[in-house]
Amino acid sequence: MTTDTDDRRRAAPEGTSGGSLPPVRPWPALHPPGPDFGPDLAELMREGPVTRVGRPDGEGWAWLVTRYDDVRAVTNDPRFGCEPVMDGRPVRLAPHVVPQRDAVAFPHPHDPARPRRSVAAAFTARGVERVRETARRMLDELVDELLQDGPPADLTATVLGPFPGAVICELMGVPAADRNDMRTWTRLILSPAHGTKAGERARDEMSAYFTGLIGAREGGSGEDVVSLLGAAVGLGEVALDEAAGLAVLLQIGAEAVTDHTGRLFHLLLTRPDLIERLRTEPAIRPQAVDELLRYIPHRDPVGPPRVATQDVEVGGVRIRTGEAVYVSYAAANRDPGVFPDPETIDFARYPNPHVAFGSGTHRCPGGMAARLASEMLLDALLDRVPGLRLAVPPDEVWFREGAPTRGPEALPVTW
Question: CATH classification of 1-96+299-332 is 3.30.43.20, yes or no?
């Protein structure tokens, strides 16, 4: 953590390779108005690839990295560690979410890939493909119910909320009877409305659930995540509490998919040209999903905090040992040096090396599952509900605030 006192003590040349420290700018708004890219973050991008921002708690400042190449460099550089975050500094972006050591978001400092290797097979193309037919049946049932009940309907409550969670539960190996508990715990963990204690209690209950489930499958076989973790625990490759912590974070990732698909359909339903093209050209939908993943800032504008464990130069700026560094995946996805005309949604964009799922040790292992769910939702809703449209004006759709990902509270639709 860097304080104002540290700032005053530093000699001028220490900050950047070319002179004194840059000025401290306001922290970018965590929840910009509406569903669009935040204007505060856009301004910081224009100012420079590495800027100083005042911490949201008012205690000192941190570095913010926004350029694509620099974001990738920081997230793949072992000299930027997460261990200090576990001791309460710098401030986490979602204070009600309490991280656990050795979990996927805060990897082991000596071998960050170790917990992930145990479950990697479940999230490969083959592993995700394993659940496609089951996922298709579940989605068909949800759309059947939507059509049977008739319009108007809340697309979030009826389809976009239940489906991603069901897909992740299928990948995880969570029995169908327990899936309502998974969603309840996930909402409590991620929502600030219920307070830190409620989130901690829900996390502990979910962790205890996975501890029991993984322990029951220890030494067994199977392709789902819980079975793979049970096998790894049986072989002594992963500790049981570490496996349960990883399972919790993988499971709650379903909410990020719900939020992203909510924003995806909100955008499409307000852009008739885009949705009509996807209806008439189904072959471009997979590529369109990648472009929408790039374009839609569905996460907080700034990613997980890191702390420099030694002096490092990034984008011409000298970051000193102990200083906090944040990266913005949303900004990196709008870098014009990598994505020409980044403010345009281009379904033909190629290549499209977006970092919507993060980068380095923080890259989301469930990215392929998220892409599968998005593609399946596009196919089902565009093909089976061809007249789908918003039932309210776009500015009457409210977006959740305070959580790490930000989707619509409800998405009223008709057809």
Answer: yes
